Structures are given as C-alpha cells and as structure tokens.
Amino acid sequence: MSEKQRIDRELAALGKLAPAGYHAGLHIRFASPLVTFQTYNQAWTDHYTAQAYAMRDPMIAWGFSTEGETRWSELELPDPFGILDEAAEFGLKYGVQVSCGPISSRTIAGAARADREFEADEIAEIGDIIRRLHDLTEPPESLTQAQIDALRLIAAGDRHTAAAAKLNISESALKARLTAARERLRARTTAEALQRAKEFRLL
C-alpha cells in the first residue's frame, strides 16, 4: 500500500468518526502546517478565516501547550471571542481536540459532531489516527543530489530548457526530478517545494 493510500485510509476512518467534519494541521512550523486536511463546513471555514480566529482559537492555544486529547467541552482555557459558541452555530457543537509531536513540528487537529459528545473510545481512536497521520507526513530528512540540483537551478531563475542543458539531461528528465522532489516534500507546485526545501534546510 502506498503512502497516499495509507493516508487516505486514515482520513476515511477519521471522517466516519467526525460526521460534522475535521481539521488537521500537521507538522506546524513557523505558524504554518506542512500538510492540512479538513472537511469542516465551508461556511464555517470561510468565517473562521475571515475573522482570523487561528490567532485567537483556544483549541490551538491548548494544542501548543499540551499533548494528548480533550473534549472541547472540557477546555479550561478562556474563549473571549466565543469561537466555540460560534462553531456550534455552524453545526460543530461537540468536538475533540488532539495534539501530538514536538513543539517544533506540532500536529493539532479537531474533530466534530452535531448530535452528542464523543465517547472515550472514539476519542482514543481519533487520537491514534492523528498520530499515525503525523508519522505518515513526517518531513523528509534529505533529497537526492539530482533533486537538489534541479531545484537550485529553478530557484536561480532558469527555465526548464536551460536547467536541463546545464545538467546535461533532457527536459523530461528534469521535470521528472522536479516531480519527485515535489512528491517527497508533499508540495503542490515547484515554488512550494522550493520553499519547503529551504525551510527544512535541504538546499
């Protein structure tokens, strides 16, 4: 089974446990996650983003200060902006929060339902899923020299044709190296791959 298939399997299991959706920010570094998976109501996501709630969310604050799992209703941090009450209005009435990993690469996730509190065994299962996703999306420790060479030339401003000529390879071979680098870095674009490679000090 490929890594993508394993991730998809974990997300499918998480979706069954969280009928009102979930949001998982994996390997948060410099205030931004390496990978994000989310199925919350789009109206709530848009509202949350427009209000810049990520900087005020008590569940995120909890996630950076604690590892483990907790029900939203058991939160002991203040919520002066009423974010949890607003979430309930969008169908995210009951929830569980999970936090794992070192503070330098923390994963924080929430899962919600509208009908009842999560049972203890469901919370434990959600926690296990998030920890497996954290492990599956661990940033790479290295790139191949061929991938590094290709990324560096593109970063320097070379177009594909020029970069391929400098490396004495075909343009299709260059594109294959860039594709492999994007996959390894879990990046959607070459620009994103370059940014992540720099953040991980792989270039």
Describe the structure.
The protein has 203 residues and is an alpha+beta fold. Helix 7 packs across helix 8 and helix 8 crosses helix 9. The radius of gyration is 20 Å and the shape is elongated. The chain has a five-stranded antiparallel beta sheet with strand order 2-1-5-4-3, with helices on both faces. It is 49% helix and 17% strand. It is built from nine helices and five strands.
Q: Keywords for this structure?
A:
203 residues; alpha+beta; 5-stranded antiparallel β-sheet; 5 strands; elongated
Spell out the blueprint of helices and strands:
Blueprint: H1 3-17, E1 22-29, E2 32-38, H2 42-50, H3 58-65, E3 68-71, H4 83-89, E4 94-100, E5 106-113, H5 120-136, H6 145-155, H7 160-167, H8 171-185, H9 190-199
Antiparallel strand pairs: 1-2, 1-5, 3-4, 4-5
Helix pairs in contact: 1-5, 6-7, 6-8, 7-8, 8-9
Low-confidence stretches: none
For the largest beta-sheet, the strand count, sense and barrel status come to:
5 strands, antiparallel
Q: Structural class of the secondary structure composition?
A: alpha+beta
Shape: elongated
Q: Please count the helical segments.
A: 9
The N- to C-terminal Cα distance equals 30 Å
Fraction in helix: 40-55%
Tell me the Rg in angstroms: 20 Å
Average the pLDDT over all residues and give the rounded result.
Answer: 92
Number of strands: 5
Beta-strand content estimate: 15-25%
How do the helices and strands follow one another from N- to C-terminus?
A: HEEHHEHEEHHHHH
Spatial order of the strands forming the largest sheet: 2-1-5-4-3
